Amino acid sequence: MNRSVLDFSQIIKNYNNVIARVCLAAESVNRDPSDICLVVVSKTFDIEVIKPIIDLGHSDFGENRVQEADMKWSPLIYNYKHLRLHLIGHLQSNKTKRATQLFDTIHTIDSLKLLNELGKHIDSDDNKCRHFFLEINMANEEQKSGISIKEILSYKNHLNTIRKVSCDGLMCIPPFDEEPSPYFLLLNKVASQHGFSKLSMGMSADFEKAIQFGATHIRVGSEIFGQRQ
Q: How is domain 8-225 classified at the architecture level of CATH?
């Protein structure tokens, strides 16, 4: 686990600044800021770095790996009932069961095999996961996970065969070296066409643009915690 180069007071200041920027971005397009879920990306950070944000009452935190989340958050989730964990990294199908026990939301559904595995565990008594996003590889980048836009319909049809697994929305990460706005606009359009109500898009560098193009979930880490030590 890593610590931050920032002290706790600066982390809290950064967090409050991000909240203010979320509000401004939402209000600039006549959206209610309360409709936007800020997922504070806590991956690889030590829990002591994250604790000031937890103690402020923030609920939603994002992790990349099931094993790290299990080790870091399992001791806390029973004492902090308001916590909601989001899996924002690639999920291996053999870790699906544990993921459904830890996470409230999985943002990275990227294969039919993974959907089938979710179907096996969705009715378990210890399943807490209720929200799912299809991860869309907007630019068909070989190094990224995700399905293509043209595959969305077949995934929707497959979902109809899996009892109680329902995807709320779509998630994307635009190409690193390109202007993200056209990708945010396209994801919004595609979501509307296919009847998805939620959009997980926007990170530290571009979350304000994502909000202006309809993001319901933004994933912000370094803008709050700074660089890892």
A: Alpha-Beta Barrel (3.20)
